[in-house]
Amino acid sequence: MSTTKTEPKRLHYAWVVMGVTFLTLLAAAGARAAPGVMLLPLGNEFQWSRATVSSVVAVNIFLYGLIGPFAAALYVRLGLRRTMMLGMALLAVGYGSTAFIKAYWQFLILWGLVVGAGSGMAATVLGAAVANRWFTKHRGLVMGLLTASAATGQLVFLPWFASLVTTAGWRSAPLVVTGVSLAMIPIIWVFMRDEPRDLGLRPFGEVGAPDAEVRAVGNPAKLAITTLIDAARTRDFWLLAGSFFACGASTNGLIGTHLVAAAFDCGIPEVRAAGLLAMMGLFDLMGTMLSGWLSDRYNNRALLFGYYGLRGISLLFLPTALLGPVAGLGIFAVFYGLDWVATVPPTARLTGDIFGRERASIVFGWIVAAHQVGAACAAYGAGAVRTAFGNYAWAFTGAGMLCVIAALGVLTIGKKKTPDDLRGGLPAAS
After folding, report:
1. What pLDDT is attached to residue 5?
2. 3-state secondary structure of 246
3. Quick check: 238 and 119 in contact, CB under 8 A?
4. What string of H, E and C letters represents the secondary structure of 139-199?
5. What is the pLDDT of residue 215?
6. Are the C-beta atoms of residues 128 and 145 closer than 8 Å to each other?
7. Taking the complete model, does pTM exceed 0.85, yes or no?
8. Splitting the chain (430 residues) into consecutive groups of 10 residues, what average pLDDT does each group show?
9. Angstrom distances, CA of residue 123 to CA of 8, 120, 276, 371
10. How far apart are the C-alpha atoms of 377 and 366, rounded to whole Å?
11. Cβ atoms of residues 243 and 348 within 8 Å
12. What is the pLDDT of residue 418?
């Protein structure tokens, strides 16, 4: 008789890369959480209106989204590791300097431009790039986990920051973000890798020899623009981008930026309101992971229809919940939290299916840019509505109606075939 000795299965390095990316997105989430609790104390100290402070947040969110596709091109050109380290360095510099601002223009440059750019290099687009490069099996689940780290982390950071701001002043929050960002740089340097082929591997779920390296050369900005021009020729791109515009206008631009202030207007203390967002974050973790699992198995158009429809209903209910019993806000937190960014895994999955693996991260970057344009409009628009009418009711109602429209639009995604040339390799850049 003979026995066959089998080697023990080793952990695929894709899971290490996912872990480092998870921590990076979690750290960047802290940077995006800070505005939600700094809005009121900043305005009080410098005597700025809600609309004035919101304008800086809008610039930050807009640049955070606009950087996405160019960051995706940098992932292709420079690699994931170096781009992630650059993003963390920009966050550290921007927030570290923000603690010492004295004037509006300083706030605009540091928080709006520097922090906005750093956030864009460590955003949802990074999760899509890692999921597409490193995973074939469980790609939707991984995208759900990474999306949850970016969104849930933002909400979980809020109670901590709210407590710090209440006890030590608003400048304590950006200093914490600076320390966390600096701590991530050596972790990324030691453990992060750009491609499975760098370690002689294939993406998780594939077997055989590594694929030959196909890396774009030339100007990353031109690569991003060329990809946008090609993608814009398709109807599906505009449907995906339009639905994500509604997604941004109804999440981080509106709820993430203004819910604490709206709750305060209704007599709810800031720390308690931030705790409500943290509760939403915990339910978001479950909802986004479940969404990733579902996106691997079910019709992604139907999933998006359900997500946008339910979110629209919850936002239409929010003005009533803010003025009613505490239980109403709890119901909103659970209902809305499960759906906070559940839209990301099916949107990323549809993008990969329609445009192909090589182009997916850059095209998704432009779709995320549309998300942040929507968020920027909501961040400023809701502040302007509050200044004009004294409350946020019209802002919440408008965002709810926008989500209902998006729910109807996503049902037609993928109904027309995408030209084969848009699913091919990356465009040449020079």
Report:
1. 44
2. helix
3. no
4. HHHHHHHHHHHHHHHHHHHHHHHHHHHHHHCCCHHHHHHHHHHHHHHHHHHHHCCCCHHHH
5. 53
6. no
7. no
8. 49 92 87 74 77 76 78 82 92 86 83 83 82 84 80 69 80 86 94 89 76 57 84 92 93 80 78 73 79 86 93 89 74 82 86 79 86 86 86 90 94 73 48
9. 36, 5, 23, 12
10. 17
11. no
12. 61
| Whole-number pLDDT of residue 89 | 94
Residue 18: both structure tokens together: 């996912």
Q: Which of 208, 315, 300, 301 is nearest to 253 (CA)?
A: 315
Q: Please identify which residue in the block is written with the tokens 């158009």.
A: 301
Side chain identity at residue 389, one-letter code: F
**Alpha-carbon distance 121 to 91, whole Å?**
10
Contact present, 213 and 197 (Cβ < 8 Å) = yes
Euclidean distance between CA atoms 197 and 212, whole angstroms: 8
Tell me which H or E stretch contains 224: helix 220-231
**Which CATH entry fits the domain spanning 14-196+216-419: 3.40.30.10, 3.30.565.10, 1.20.1250.20, 1.10.390.10?**
1.20.1250.20
Would you say 254 and 399 are in contact if contact means Cβ atoms under 8 Å apart?
yes
Phi-psi region of 47 (alpha: psi -120 to 50; beta: other; left: phi over 0): left
- Residue 15: the pLDDT is 93
Q: Which residue has the tokens 């991984």?
A: 142
Q: With 0-12 CB in 10 A as exposed, 13-18 as middle and 19+ as buried, what is 99?
A: middle
Question: What would the DSSP string read from start to end of 396-412?
Answer: HHHHHHHHHHHHHHGGG
Instruction: Please count the CA atoms within 13 angstroms of the CA of 55 that sit on its side-chain side.
Output: 12
Tokens of 378: 């909501």
Return d(Cα 138, Cα 295) in angstroms, integer.
10
Burial 57-79 (b: 16+ CB within 10 A, else e): bbbbbbbbbbbbbbbbbbbbbeb
Q: Supply the pLDDT for residue 2.
A: 45
Report the phi/psi class of residue 390: left, alpha or beta, with left for phi > 0 and alpha for psi in -120 to 50.
left
pLDDT for residue 428: 42
Task: Classify residue 314 by its DSSP letter.
Answer: H
